[in-house]
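In response to the reviewer comment on reproducibility (Comment 2.3), we provide here a single inverse folding case reported in full, input and output, so that an independent group could reproduce the run without further information from us. The structure tokens appear first.
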């Protein structure tokens, strides 16, 4: 059955994309200046430029992926006794993180060391990491009655690992643009990480390196690649592929450790020979790309009722972790036995989707923007352009 070597430790899930404003960027939006036009609002007048429109496809993809993240966290305690839940869990964990990371890479294509982009990297990723790492650690101390649990910015706990990874990946974007074979090189790095047990837990580097190829793939994808995945024949073919994956996962569940899907340990740490890391890294990279393509094939292209929620997935991702962990700390799955029955499993699935949906809504974004998108003008020097603009206003 499902075997997690760290039952209440690191887990993976979701996500932000945080490139500079561009059409379809599903990451947290930069603060708007008072009086500036709202996104999607038409502007007229001499010298005005049309407002950029978000691409509904990517917002839809991010929302649906974060829903799968929440469902996977709700299913995890069920996998020890429900083979069906375990099969669903394994299939979802094969593609939901790669999908997030691939989108993050796609919208990181224009990242460079420009001052404003570095500032957004700090305020949109580094600051939320620090705040939520501390908040999660304090929550575990209280909710799990574990006063000795340390607060460590070097050892990400639970969901915060993704922010560390995204920070590192974005900082390396200029490097990937100059090497000759970026995807094979990133895959080689992932393979080396999977056979290197001495990497340790600092900054969750195993995950940073083992998930790196998906970010690099997204970095070099073009719009036509997404168009290809959304073709009718790909959508039709994806159905038997997904069904086959579910059947295989149902068979493999009792025979395979789910820890392979987390990419947080080397092969040796999972009790396997070193060469298993090479085989599993290549095999899971291929399977993840196939299932991620199947997922993208069924993402709606048009604007849906949930499209607006795609901009708030980072909020839902980080906030739902308190409830996901609290349900384990407070023993809900043990105290309410009916949750482990088929109807209870369906209830948990629906409840997880509902909770994550609420946490992605604009009111929640406004309430937690101080932590997720702080302005922090006081922390940065003003560049020459800003100083010239201020002098012009005063004169």
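Designed residues, in position order:
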């Amino acid at each position: 059955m499902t075997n997690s070597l760290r039952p209440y430790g690191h887990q993976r899930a979701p996500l932000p994309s945080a490139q500079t404003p561009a059409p379809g960027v599903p990451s947290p939006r930069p603060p708007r200046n008072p009086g500036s036009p709202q996104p999607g609002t038409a502007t007229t007048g001499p010298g005005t430029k049309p407002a950029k429109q978000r691409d509904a496809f990517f917002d839809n993809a991010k929302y649906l992926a974060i829903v799968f993240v929440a469902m996977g966290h709700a299913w995890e305690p069920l996998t020890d006794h429900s083979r069906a839940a375990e099969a669903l869990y394994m299939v979802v964990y094969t593609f939901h993180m790669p999908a997030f990371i691939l989108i993050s890479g796609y919208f990181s294509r224009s990242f460079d060391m420009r001052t404003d982009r570095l500032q957004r990297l700090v305020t949109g990723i580094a600051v939320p990491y620090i705040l939520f790492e501390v908040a999660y650690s304090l929550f575990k101390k209280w909710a799990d009655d574990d006063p000795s649990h340390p607060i460590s910015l070097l050892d990400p706990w639970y969901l915060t690992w993704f922010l560390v990874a995204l920070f590192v990946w974005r900082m390396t974007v200029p490097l990937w643009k100059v090497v000759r074979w970026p995807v094979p090189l990133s895959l080689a790095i992932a393979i080396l990480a999977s056979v290197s047990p001495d990497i340790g837990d600092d900054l969750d580097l195993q995950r940073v390196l083992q998930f790196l190829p998906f970010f690099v793939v997204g970095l070099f994808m073009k719009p036509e690649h997404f168009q290809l995945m959304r073709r009718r024949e790909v959508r039709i073919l994806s159905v038997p592929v997904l069904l086959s994956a579910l059947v295989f996962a149902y068979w493999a569940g009792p025979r395979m450790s789910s820890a392979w899907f987390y990419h947080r340990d080397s092969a040796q740490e999972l009790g396997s020979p070193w060469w298993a890391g090479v085989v599993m890294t290549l095999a899971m990279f291929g399977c993840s790309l196939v299932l991620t393509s199947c997922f993208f094939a069924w993402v709606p292209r048009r604007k849906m009722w949930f499209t607006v929620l795609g901009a708030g997935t980072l909020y839902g991702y980080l906030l739902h972790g308190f409830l996901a962990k609290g349900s384990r700390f407070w023993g809900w799955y043990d105290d309410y036995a009916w949750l482990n029955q088929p109807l209870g499993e369906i209830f948990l699935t629906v409840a997880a989707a509902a909770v994550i949906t609420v946490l992605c809504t604009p009111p929640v974004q406004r309430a937690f923007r101080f932590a997720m998108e702080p302005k922090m003008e006081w922390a940065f020097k003003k560049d020459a352009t800003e100083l010239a603009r201020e002098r012009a206003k005063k004169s």
